[in-house]
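Notebook, student rotation project (T.W.).
Task set for the rotation: take a protein with a known small-molecule partner, predict the structure of the complex, and write up what can be learned from the model alone. Partner molecule chosen: 2-phosphoglycolic acid. Sequence and SMILES entered below by T.W., checked by me.
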Amino acid sequence: MTLPDKNVLLFDLDGTLVDSAPDLALALNRTLEDLNKPLVDQHTIRGWVGNGAKVLVQRGLSGSATINELLDTALVEEALTIFLAHYQQCLCIESALYNDVKEGLFTLKLAGYRLAIITNKPAIFIQPILQGLGLGNVFELLIGGDTLPQRKPDPAPLHYALAQLNVTAEQCLMIGDSKNDILAAQAAKIDSVGLTYGYNYGEDISLYQPQWCFDHFKALLTLLIKNEE
Ligand SMILES: O=C(O)COP(=O)(O)O
Ligand SMILES: [Mg+2]
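Predicted structure of the complex:
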């Protein structure tokens, strides 16, 4: 199958291209340790990734996916500053591209697709991570969770991408692992692909009704490139 009207692919980062949870967990636990707070196992932290650094830190301090509303604002700000410094030091220790992502992105680019990243991760970390994983020159636009005041599931970063790339919603496909990606795409009237291997808070991404749902990154090539098996 091919999608002739699409020529722009908007990719989520964490849980879609990169399994970044081990390093996010490392940085979060170093932060909690500095603050004498209880540490959290990596499996639990996997279920907390997807709403950006501040929410991750708030979940860490709450010891739960549900943020404790009584958390002290100054403590959250202090923890966020500590977390960002730790994460800067461990961006690519254990983080790795999912299977077939590197070859797949190069194939899509060679086939003529324009590629962009729209992540909820702070923007300063995007390029170093891409560089560290051999994808430094693949994307023409990088949008982070703090590029605009709004982040996914708000459609604002997607609208911003359309304007920056000078394309229409119909030309784009949003590809992500989380309901935030699918809801943002739906609000921006952009078709979406949900990938099931990422984080999505332990929930089945198909519940959010993306146009396509795949268990492997490679399936994107079948959808987007003629004559691929
Ligand atoms: O770092 C996060 O919270 C999630 O980032 P993502 O939007 O790339 O999944
Ligand atoms: Mg994600």
